[in-house]
Amino acid sequence: MHTFLPIAYFENEFVPFENAKLSIATHALHYGTAAFGGMRGIPNPENPKQILLFRLNRHCQRLSQSAKFLNYELSPEKLQQIIIDFVQKNKPTQSFYIRPLVYSSGLGIAPRLHNIEKNFFVYGLEMGDYLSPDGISCRISSWTRQEDRSFPLRGKISAAYITSALAKTEAVESGFDEAILMNSQGKVCEATGMNIFIVRNSKLITPGFEQDILEGITRDSILTLARNLDIPTIERPIDKSELFIADEVFLCGTAAKIAPVKQIETFKLSSHRPITEKLRDKLFAITENKDPQYADWVYVVDLP
């Protein structure tokens, strides 16, 4: 059972979470004409009257860009202020996850993006580890990631996640924790809601944007951290066979943070993960606002 934060932002006002309800005729429900974001927040370990949000401005920028695919103009500044107000009204006391979503709120039945109402809501829930920090098992999915020529993969569009849902269920029901999706060229793409990195010969490697991946914010953060730590980084296509012989593999995302992979299909991976651990420790310290070098990545919300 999820523990939801008590207040939601819905139809331009803050209301009790249980009162934020949509019509069964809502356009986005039928056609996937929605885009969402996700960000984590934690109470400041040094000050319980503060909440720390990781890369708030970047998350709001990406959601604003995603909304453009829906013919919806929603500024990052407006999104950011609503999220700050949302946090101040809820006063969370545990690690939590914020889910903002823009959507076609009209009740029409034609699949379109023009001449239909749009709206925006925010809710949140308490969240600990999404995946085991000790290591997870993955299978190669039988489902293929969409292509940008047929789907706007630069946006976090809700309709795209049917592939993720199919792949996740296939993985779990066949005895694995997570799925790795290949793209239409047969190259490694991403997991069901996370980007993927491998380490080979002390080099950190991840698929580039041309491989039909989501422009992950945690992925971007890890690449920046690695370069500043003098870890060589490479963005290039990754073959499936490379996964099985990699020195380290990990998944990353807002919900998953950095999740090491211990097994892919029948191949066991090493439990010695020096680069994964170094990056995970660094990222954890930053999210707790304990690294002055990356203080601009953490937005501090003062609670009333």
How would you describe what is shown here?
It is an enzyme of class 2 (transferase). GO terms for molecular function: L-isoleucine-2-oxoglutarate transaminase activity; L-leucine-2-oxoglutarate transaminase activity; L-valine-2-oxoglutarate transaminase activity. Belongs to the class-IV pyridoxal-phosphate-dependent aminotransferase family. Acts on leucine, isoleucine and valine. Helix content is 26%, strand content 31%. With 304 residues, the protein is α+β, with helices and mostly antiparallel strands. Strands 8, 9, 10, 11, 12, 13, 14, 15 and 16 form a nine-stranded mixed beta sheet that branches.
What labels describe this entry?
about 300 residues, alpha+beta, D-amino Acid Aminotransferase, Chain A, domain 1, D-amino Acid Aminotransferase, Chain A, domain 2, 2 domains, 6-stranded antiparallel β-sheet, 7 helices, globular
What's the overall geometry? Answer: globular
Instruction: Write the CATH homologous superfamily of the largest domain.
Output: D-amino Acid Aminotransferase, subunit A, domain 2
The CATH architecture of the largest domain comes to Alpha-Beta Barrel
Radius of gyration: 19 Å
CATH class of the largest domain: Alpha Beta
Stretches where pLDDT falls below 50 for ≥5 residues?
A: none
The number of helical elements comes to 7
